[in-house]
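REVIEWER CHECKLIST
Item 1: Sequence provided? yes
Item 2: Single chain? yes
Item 3: Sequence as submitted:
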Amino acid sequence: MSKKNLVIVTGLSGAGKTQAVRSLEDLGYFCVDNLPPTLIPKFVELCTQTKKDVDKIALVVDIRGGEFFDALTEVLGELDSMEIKYEILFLEAARETLLHRFKETRRSHPLAVDGDVLHWIDEEKNRLQEIRGRAHKIIDTSYLSNTQLREEISSLFGDSSAVSKIKIIVMSFGYKYGMPTDSDLVFDVRFLPNPHYDPVLRPMTGNATEIQEFVMNSETSVQFVGKFFDFLEFLVPQYIKEGKTSLTIAIGCTGGVHRSVALTNKLTDYLRNRKYNVMTKHRDIHKKEG
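Item 4: Structure as written out by the authors:
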């Protein structure tokens, strides 16, 4: 089996594993949900012995397996000894997001023996720390729609022969709401001109032309953008040489509405003009104040 033919999908309950495995199915993967880890080696061996070679397999293994799940670490060691190549895809989300999803779907947490869902979310997170540390790819779905998650899965496991070898996510955020946990590079642009103090501009977002001109036309902004883009022009190819398949660049200002959004859009255009595969996320733009 080649490196990307066996994908083990795991992670926190409510983080989007079902949607992820549906996306992998659409990419031609043979998918099995909630397989006991101890059966993985035999299952993979069976797939290689079939007349019709099953060369793309995705297995969902998570806390629903109860005591069986605890054997996953041992099974991974067995796969290593058998020289079976695999990748672990770990999905997670912020605890408040997971709580909201459980309430929205009216489903109980798999570990829950009482109504304290947050406690069981934290308990599951603690139990999965070791396997998270072994994951090859981690996706935080807190701010991803189903469509965006599908795009992310496609960029990681789809046929990349026709696109850039690296998927770049450019994300704006507000420091007042916390730093994103899944970023590779974080840039603080709170030194740029702030439209918040102009009562006419304040209700707008960085998507508006007026905000973009206000933020980008100062001497400081022009100098910074030039140096910033030159830095990334050098850095991104180095990541590609090292085999990195995804890169998240987070750009933060105070509220995540004006300056970071404007610069995120400008960087997205810059990278796309250089034929990179780019996805834009404005994490906190919906929290804007009037």
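Item 5: Key structural point noted by reviewer: The two ends are 55 Å apart (CA to CA).
Item 6: Recommendation: ____
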